């Protein structure tokens, strides 16, 4: 771990302190981002804090302390989702809620997820400082395993809570170390029975707004601190396994090979062009691959890869997935290998409704911020809730569009502006 990296001081270096007002503190946001950055800090100044790890739980416990300090009651459900709650004047009403996640990809950045959690907390901190009791309950959520690194399928906590998680499939999953989902749960003090009980028949949430970094360049190009999300692309993750026959690299003739990696490579090259055959907005990625036996002088006998295919239109996304599956089945016999295909996750895209967009439009007008409308190519916990309740997302500017990387950066001024926008939007929701 680096002993010299100080995210808090780096954030404060060019902060415009004019934004520390109305109970929202940029200095507090910087300290909390800095404190979280130390949990899983890497030598490259990134963070590795994957879902269902002790580090993810350590980060949650720190947030739970902050929630209690802000006057919130705190619970953690069987899936590990953390809920901080402020009672409302009408405490029987459904809550207005916000939040995000604190897990990361391996060697990730410090803003993807934590910003949304800390911005949501700033709303509670502001009201506490001003002595405001909201008209309805306000809740802050920290969802478990949004990134999905451990089991190749993200949004785990929000899917568990909304009932979108197939437990029959989930219990069959194993991580890279061969541990089953149940065994991993046990390492975090959770059980399968408790995890299943996280499902809610009624969410008890009226509206949900998530702050997140853009992970793209549009706001930077428009020179704007924040933007309004109009829709969230739906991700589909598929595991594809090619199985051939391992053999000696020197003694096996080229015309007598069952090379699983050659088959996988052919498919990967097809995946690169697959979206453009169907859609102008679709994207497809192979970001994870495992080669066995993985020896320099051994013909690969087995290759496992994960495809991540997304689009803002469900029909075109599903067509791209279908075309990739068909291509894999065509490649396998042509290279004398077997192929096994397992769907890991398929989440519908989520459009943001006119009512929630209208609330953000009004906030931007009131704050005299030019409006930039964005589409999220990344999946977010908000999309799981969006299948049942009105949701919105506020994007904060990302430097160079970089994310899932130690170079991920959003200025403290932009982080604090996003907290002000969130607070204003939450307060408008409270009045409806």
3D architecture notes:
- The protein is of the alpha/beta class and 432 residues long.
- 35% of the residues lie in helices and 22% in strands.
- The strands form 3 sheets. Strands 1, 2, 3, 4, 5, 6, 13, 14 and 15 form a 9-stranded mixed β-sheet that branches. A 4-stranded antiparallel β-sheet has the order 9-11-7-12, with helices on one face. A two-stranded antiparallel ribbon has the order 8-10.
- α12 (354-366) crosses α14 (412-430).
- Keywords: Hydrolase, Manganese, Metal-binding.
- Its cofactor is Mn(2+).
Task: Provide a concise account of the structure shown.
It is built from 14 helices and 15 strands.
Helical content (DSSP H or I, runs of 4+): 25-40%
Q: What value does the average pLDDT take?
A: 95
Give a quick account of the main beta sheet: strands, pairing sense, barrel closure.
Answer: 9 strands, mixed
Count, helices: 14
Distance between the termini: 48 Å
Kindly name the structural category. Answer: alpha/beta
Q: Can you tell me the CATH superfamily of the largest domain?
A: Zn peptidases
Query: What is the H-and-E element order?
Result: HHHEEEHEHHHHEHEEEHEEEHEEHEHEH
Question: What are the main properties of this structure?
Answer:
single chain, 432 residues, alpha/beta, Aminopeptidase, Alpha-Beta Plaits, nine-stranded mixed beta sheet, four-stranded antiparallel beta sheet, 14 helices, 15 strands, globular, manganese, Zn-dependent hydrolase, Amidase_Cbmase
